[in-house]
Amino acid sequence: MTSSRHQYLPPTPEDIVETKFMDLFDTPGEPMHLVRGGTLPGITVAYETYGTLNERRDNAIYICHALTGDAHAAGYHEGDDRPGWWDALIGPGKAIDTDRWFVVASNILGGCSGTTGPSSVNPETGKPYGLDFPLLDMHDFVVVHRALLTKLGVPHLHAAVGGSLGGMQVLDWALTHPEDMNQAVVIASSSRLTAQNIAFSAVGREAIMSDENFMNGAFAENDTNPDVGLAVARMMAHITYTSEEGFEEKFGRRPQFDAQQPGFGVDFAVESYLDHQASSFIGRFDALSYLYLTRVMDYFNPFADAHALDRLVATPVRFLVMSFDSDWRFGTAHSRRIVRRLQDAALPVSFREIHAPWGHDSFLLHIPPYLDSVRAFVEQPAVPRPTIRRRRLRKWGR
């Protein structure tokens, strides 16, 4: 059985969680240096934790969220009737069991839910950064994740887990700092966007920047917002997050109203659904964050570096790569490309394609085969066994 993350289950007091904030890179004269140039003189990170860090400090799992997610991965905020994004996966007795694991989830750099981003105030000008915010790289996210863990007193991760853009963060993290983790779980993600992927993001950005209220990125200081452009971007993107089968099952050609007068309004139920998605998105997400974060995804291509796997080969991390057969945004071919690159280097990797009709966003849903696979993987012993090929290479002194 599959259910949405928005299915309402009354929260108990134990389910209530609170978003916390941490200041990083705030030592005078020691700003955060960004991969593509530029610095940030101190940043704030929004994060949540679930479970308890044990005395050995070896039971931590980091959750890397997707493009429009945030730090609220599980449980409920006080007064809310909707749980966190990954609530199907994270919690007591769930696949990532918080009775055993200490889970950390943070909002990414450039976001708009408590972590420093382009709409934050630039301390040098007293105004929002706008388009003066520096361009970001996938590795900048990882740098911030690592700094947060240091402040939290977590020296090593049992696993890093991420879906979509979050999976890209996990891949970058494992490639550049494999010593940080035992396991990496990459779900519905990619190591390189296709031209079609980039085209979808380009249309969304164009809709935002063409909005008359965009004002060259200075909309916040002019007390306005590019609502129309952001809504169009969300509606178009959301279509790619589900599947034709999912839309048919949920909406079909059902009209929105009993008495229908054909026109150019909201005539069909699916139109009403997209309209609702757009309206809620405008209230919780920032147009500039959408521009900056989608651009990071466009340029992500770690295997373009011939030495990308060198550190990982020296310090292997056990990988689980997963895809969903109805995902046409980052379909199984994207996951297989990652698996092939890891296998070519004789690295330990498991792969599973899950049957689900709900498309790309399946990684946020209650799909038992998917959840069971994650549980089985993360509960393996910390020390990976070398693959047969790797044992042979060692035997041959290579």
From TrEMBL:
<dbReference type="GO" id="GO:0009092">
    <property type="term" value="P:homoserine metabolic process"/>
</dbReference>
<keyword id="KW-0012">Acyltransferase</keyword>
<comment type="pathway">
    <text>Amino-acid biosynthesis; L-methionine biosynthesis via de novo pathway; O-succinyl-L-homoserine from L-homoserine: step 1/1.</text>
</comment>
<dbReference type="GO" id="GO:0009086">
    <property type="term" value="P:methionine biosynthetic process"/>
</dbReference>
<keyword id="KW-0963">Cytoplasm</keyword>
<dbReference type="Pfam" id="PF00561">
    <property type="entry name" value="Abhydrolase_1"/>
</dbReference>
<feature type="active site" description="Nucleophile">
    <location>
        <position position="164"/>
    </location>
</feature>
<comment type="similarity">
    <text>Belongs to the AB hydrolase superfamily. MetX family.</text>
</comment>
<dbReference type="InterPro" id="IPR000073">
    <property type="entry name" value="AB_hydrolase_1"/>
</dbReference>
<dbReference type="InterPro" id="IPR029058">
    <property type="entry name" value="AB_hydrolase_fold"/>
</dbReference>
<dbReference type="InterPro" id="IPR008220">
    <property type="entry name" value="HAT_MetX-like"/>
</dbReference>
<keyword id="KW-0486">Methionine biosynthesis</keyword>
<feature type="binding site">
    <location>
        <position position="361"/>
    </location>
    <ligand>
        <name>substrate</name>
    </ligand>
</feature>
<protein>
    <recommendedName>
        <fullName>Homoserine O-succinyltransferase</fullName>
        <ecNumber>2.3.1.46</ecNumber>
    </recommendedName>
</protein>
<dbReference type="GO" id="GO:0008899">
    <property type="term" value="F:homoserine O-succinyltransferase activity"/>
</dbReference>
<keyword id="KW-0028">Amino-acid biosynthesis</keyword>
<feature type="site" description="Important for acyl-CoA specificity">
    <location>
        <position position="329"/>
    </location>
</feature>
<comment type="function">
    <text>Transfers a succinyl group from succinyl-CoA to L-homoserine, forming succinyl-L-homoserine.</text>
</comment>
<feature type="active site">
    <location>
        <position position="327"/>
    </location>
</feature>
<feature type="domain" description="AB hydrolase-1">
    <location>
        <begin position="60"/>
        <end position="366"/>
    </location>
</feature>
<comment type="subunit">
    <text>Homodimer.</text>
</comment>
<dbReference type="GO" id="GO:0004414">
    <property type="term" value="F:homoserine O-acetyltransferase activity"/>
</dbReference>
<keyword id="KW-0808">Transferase</keyword>
<feature type="active site">
    <location>
        <position position="360"/>
    </location>
</feature>
<dbReference type="GO" id="GO:0005737">
    <property type="term" value="C:cytoplasm"/>
</dbReference>
<feature type="binding site">
    <location>
        <position position="234"/>
    </location>
    <ligand>
        <name>substrate</name>
    </ligand>
</feature>
